[in-house]
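Inputs:
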Amino acid sequence: MNQWLNQHIQPLRMVLGRMRQNLLGTVLMCCVMGVTLSLPAILFTIVDNLGQVAGGIESKPQLSLFLKLDASSSAKEAITEQLKKHPDIAKYEFVSKESAWEQMQQNANTADISASLNKNPLPDAYFVTPKDIQPKSVQRLQKEMQQWDGVELAQVDSNWIQRLDTVLKLGKKAIFVLVALLGFALVAVIGNTIRLQIMTQLEEIEVSKLIGATNQFIRRPFLYAGTLYGLGGGLAAWLIVLAVVQLFNTSVTEIADLYASQFRLSMPNAPITISMLLSAVALGWLGAFVAVNRSLAKIKKL
Amino acid sequence: MIKFDRVSKRYPGSFDAIKNTSFEIEQGDLVFVTGTSGAGKSTLLKLIAGLERPTSGTVLINNQNVSQLKAAAIPYLRRNFGLIFQDHKLLYDRNCYDNVALPLHINGVLGDEAAKRIRAALDKVGLLSKEKSMPITLSGGEQQRLAIARAVVSRPSILIADEPTGNLDEDYATDILDFLYAFQQVGVTVIIASHELPHNIPDNIKNVVKVLHLQHGELTA
């Protein structure tokens, strides 16, 4: 147990010593990783926050049901009956064309328009609140109502939210692609750095192998180096994201205040932070593993 | 302890470096492998130390057939040997102490136990006062002694030295050989490759010396 622990503490100490000796290079390496990792993290924070904004509004979508101008009163009664009985509808409100017309005339903004019209152009309308607010079921309801007799137009008031939702989904996909590409780049960068370190320590590796070092022994310090670069990069990325969100928030606050909103970009939460750090560490380890295995294969003859 | 049975070694695209060689080395032997340059001394030592596998024949080390060992087992076989290389193979990016520490680290010996053994090994070769010096600041003889310290620090049962006195003047060479004889005296098997048998072997050693003389890769009596 003690020996096992020693076998890990010793290379770790050695690597930390080497990193301290070459502090500037280590810091730069961590910065490169940090910047690379922070790009998708910042994008994710923004998309995630926008999603939350959209989610807040999405909770009360409404359907507007405009009837045909010549809809008969029997058709109206049938629709009222159907709305009453429909299992998916939470509540509905009927606004007759007369009351809508009155409202329009009373409203200062629209009074001018109504004055220039010589007859009421407004249809009878129902405003329906569905029980299930999932975009899919709302859409199904809308399609169903469109088929009803006497209905001119069934309109979902939250169409723009759906569009935003689609755009956000696209954004998330873009982040995924970005993460995959940048992750690959990071593995390559770390792999190359570790490969250069291996080159400078080729003599040590050769001598170690000659006097009985196992491949694990040779791999260990490089794997620790890669992992530590990853950890440093992850922490750097986290700090960058915090700084950027803070910076954005000063502007976001101004905009939100104009809309009398309390909206602020939220800092990355614990799961996001942890997964960012873990993926950075994993990428670092992977890069080192690939590099050291390739180099070991080259000097296998020893 | 070490047994060669009709061993040949051929490097790709080359003649046989070692041809049909059979011999046996017992625990505690002092063996000189002699021969001119290119006679196959280094190859023979590499075969003994498990650094090369034979092309044909069997090499038994502690009753283990080297040809049949898995790659993962080779490092553990090598730990039986203390190797002193022709070109020292010291690491010039670290001081004497850390050079000697390397085999112990490979064996997983660390801390006080390691420090004690490193200092003992340095003391044995007279370099204790230079433990913090970098190898590049040492003389040729001192570097060779440092290499010996590194070879013996993990207390191997077999010590192998490839031309340990090659580039040294007479006095230094005698010095180095005396160190190696001393290890044979305490029961370590010592195998030394050398151009020719040293002419000033002490009398008490002379009777135990075994000689393997190589000519064009073949043993001659």
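Chain A has two domains: 2-57+162-298, 62-157. Flag for discussion at group meeting.
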